[in-house]
Write a structure and sequence with these properties.
Elements: E1 2-7, H1 12-21, H2 23-26, E2 30-33, H3 35-45, E3 50-51, H4 59-68, E4 74-78, H5 91-100, E5 105-106, H6 109-121, H7 126-133
């Protein structure tokens, strides 16, 4: 499965910790992340990451393109809804594309953990069938 990981600046440490805690699950899948988040994940969890540009430099659009082409199976976008900055990636377009293409999306830690555990159990295997149809 192809998993996209994005985090606002104030949530990057949380994303690193999530990747360390669930490394045993994530290592079985292809990981995609925006530039800075991807670099931090690689350094802290030793997971291989396909890195997009930084979110504000076009990484969000690169992710959106993969979602629109049905190439992403799960998105974890840890966001700070209170203190997000203008230069940080906008969740709106990613949310919209995930809804259009039925891509499971977590925007907070609780949902991210639930989706990762579901992924490990095989509950998201239906994505492989959907990807082959498109």
């Amino acid at each position: 499965m192809n998993i996209a990981l994005v985090a606002h600046d104030s949530k990057k440490t949380l994303m690193e910790n999530l990747c360390i805690a669930y490394r045993h699950i994530l290592v079985k899948h292809e990981i995609y992340a925006t530039g800075t988040t991807g670099q931090l994940i690689e350094e802290t969890s030793n997971l291989p990451v396909h890195k997009y540009l930084a979110g504000h430099l076009g990484g969000e659009q690169q992710l959106g393109s993969q979602i629109a082409n049905n190439d992403i199976d799960l998105v974890i976008f840890l966001r700070d809804p209170v203190a997000s900055k203008i230069y940080e990636p906008d969740i709106g377009s990613v949310l919209r594309l995930c809804d259009i293409h039925n891509i499971p999306l977590a925007s907070n830690l609780a949902t991210a953990e639930v989706l990762l555990l579901a992924l490990d159990r095989g509950d998201l295997d239906w994505r492989s069938l959907v990807r082959k149809v498109d």
